[in-house]
Amino acid sequence: MDLTSLFKLSYGLYIVSSTDGEKHGGCIVNTVTQVTAEPVKLVVAVHKDNVTTSMIEKSGKFCVCVLNETAPMELIGRFGFKTSRDIDKFDGIEYKVDKNGLYYPAQEVAAVVSCNVLEKVDLGTHILFVAQACDAFTVNDQPVLTYAYYHSVKKGRTPPKASSYQKPQKKSGFKCTVCGYIYEGDTLPEDYVCPVCGVAANMFEKL
């Protein structure tokens, strides 16, 4: 089976956030889909190991943020390659609160949808949440970030816990041991900083 054929499927890139009542968290996903119009229902798949998943299960609600094309890699790295077990992902950034009391980034967001979970389905590695929207609004009319744009223009990588993750092919260069970003070249500058997760050059390993 040619798994690269799945790259032809169209995806967006979103931040899904939730809470456990004591702290707020969120993660990057590319698996948000509207499935009905009346009432508005959505589905989202989140990896079982994500802290966000347990927050959604506990609270029964989540917030979906549609990202702009201009969303910086630092924001994607914060929510996509770091864990809420170790950091407060909303610390140090501007955020707002949705109808359900959930935090979401205030910058680089095109639209926000607040959801209440109706049911969940165990998919093995992921949990599929079926939810009904209780609020939705547009923030701006900028082009939204697609997964194709993220890979082709921003040169972003897919986190191992993502639904569409595939093991990378061997390349010459240096690989970030934190997020998997690959710097192509024979020499890695000493002052180089990972554009995705922000770690220094000493956290890279030669391929």
From TrEMBL:
Gene3D superfamilies: 2.20.28.10, Electron Transport, Fmn-binding Protein, Chain A. Keywords: Oxidoreductase. Residues 171-207 form the Rubredoxin-like domain. One of its GO terms (molecular function) is riboflavin reductase (NADPH) activity. Its cofactor is Fe(3+). This is Flavin reductase.
